[in-house]
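Proteins fold reproducibly. Look at a concrete instance:
___
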Amino acid sequence: MGHVNGLSRLSILLVEDDALIALGLTETMTEMGHCVCSVETSGLGAVLAAARYRPELMIVDVNLTDGSGVAAVNEVLTTGFIPHIFMTGDTYIAKALEQRSVVLQKPFHERELAAGIERALANRPQPSPATAG
């Protein structure tokens, strides 16, 4: 089982209400070879964009000015699993979320982001064999 160093090009939904952080992350994702299909600033926008674009990965700020990133992801997941990464500057929230999700503590570096993406993709449900019992 070899470790794959490079990731394939991903369609990414970015949910971040700070314009400078969103711009920086979009540039980083592009430099890493990925495509940001949409940048949303609210929980509702995130839910609608996820339904529209069906991204391969969501990177979501936990605390949005207009809504909760966690609530938005939970809503999106009711229609099917999408790998996701939560971002937060709040250490307490980060520790609580780490039990069930990939969490990046702000600020983070590109290598931490790349490792987070790999962990999020590893969380995808594996297809179960279609065998009748």
